[in-house]
Design brief:
heterodimer, A: alpha/beta, 2 domains, eleven-stranded mixed sheet, 11 strands, B: alpha+beta, Glutamine Phosphoribosylpyrophosphate, subunit 1, domain 1, Alpha-Beta Plaits, seven-stranded antiparallel sheet, six-stranded antiparallel sheet, 33% strand
Amino acid sequence: MQTLDLTQIGLREVNKTLHAQSADTNQTAWTIENARGSHAIACGLDAPIDVTVKGSTGYYCGGMNKQATINIHGSAGPGTGENIMSGKIIIEGDASQYLGATGHGGLIVVKGNASSRCGISMKGVNIVVQGNIGHMSAFMGQSGNLVVLGDAGDALGDSCYEARFFVRGKVKSLGADCEKKEMRPEHVEFLKEILAEAGMDADPSEFTRYGSARKLYNFDVDNAGAY
Amino acid sequence: MCGIVGLFLKDKALEPELGAMLTDMLITMTDRGPDSAGLAIYGREEKSKAKLTVQSDTPDQDFNGLCADLEKELKVAVQMTTNSTHAVLEVPQSQAASTRMILRRIRPNIRIMGVGTSLEIYKEVGLPKDVAERFNVRQMSGSHGIGHTRMATESAVTTMGAHPFNTGDDQCLVHNGSLSNHNSLRRKLRREGIHIETENDTEVGAAYLTWKMREGASLGEALESALEDLDGFFTFVVGTKDGFGVVRDPIACKPAVMAETDQYVAFGSEYRALVNLPGIESARVWEPEPATVYFWSHTSSNNSEEAA
């Protein structure tokens, strides 16, 4: 286990050290101490390493992540996991706004609640939230899955494309062009797998699926009021 | 951007540390806005006395003999404490309004930063570190306070464009965001006879609250109607004689984090601002909800949370 103390060596040194790890590095377990809400911790990683961050993080922790598994022992600030490509980010506490924004792949797990705009413009990432999510989540979501064990706030999935949303609790309101969908066997199967991968104990049959009504893909003057 | 902080002390033993704690919180937020900085401290108050915090760009001229000149005009004893470009004038509460008028006449270059019984406001162009040092804020004690570091977007970088803005006796406002209907609202408020000095959007927000309260609204009601009438982005922290309030616009894209322990309630634009507070590791930390008015008060036990 390698330990990096953020207050001792600074953010650039921490990230540089992690960036230097290659695909076949044998130093695969890292701990970052004293996160203290700092920005951009463990951004742009591209190696199959495990990084544990001690404390709460600020903006963009784990942004652009590839391959790495990042475990945040605290709460995560705005834009955590922004544009994640692959790998995994696990947040033990709550997540602030725009979690996993524009994420292309990989998995983000939140043990607490996620705030507004969770999964905004998601492009393939899977996000599992044990608690609730805030308003305008998955706005313009294009691909990927947002799984919520608690409730969703206002305007879920507004102007979404092909991203799928599974909510176990209540949805305060659906956004424009987002609708309730049928749960088919393949959706139950998918939920079973993703919940297992996220380490969450929940019955897939309790979830409701939401997705695009596909009415706003192309501009139609009759829909002008919906935008 | 802009960085805002607030600290409401429950534990009286921390009161001598208020200035130092708030200064550290604000300095941490420096990279959210380097243009100007300000702090409002709710400190010592004297029975039936009002405090006016005044500012001058030429304090040597304006503050020279000011106390004596005021005493001559008001025919009562006035206490004056000069602090760099600012001075705190203490006058009988009943004479606060007439002091304003007299100042306008005898020292036209003096600007009034704040009026109240316990409120003092210190703000200038510059970094939080320099502004706090200039006024020795670290040495100040108090029961609660708020602070702001500004990244100017809607108006010039000047002392008068710095936050906090005084909205009424013992009330002040700091703002992260930008209001988009401030020009039309400014015209409307001026027609209502509300004095607005600058082209700054936040000053209009502050003036709006002043106007609402003049029309009989409580601060909570004024904040709720602000959610209707102010267009744009805002996270507001308002200081009151008893405590502070927090409200975010319904979109809530301007960040806000709060922490509460048995000793204090703290607000920061980011969690970073809170990391040096005592016992933060075990504090309850959360993000205030959009379009919800929160209040903490020293005098009332029902600290509230109200969805608008």
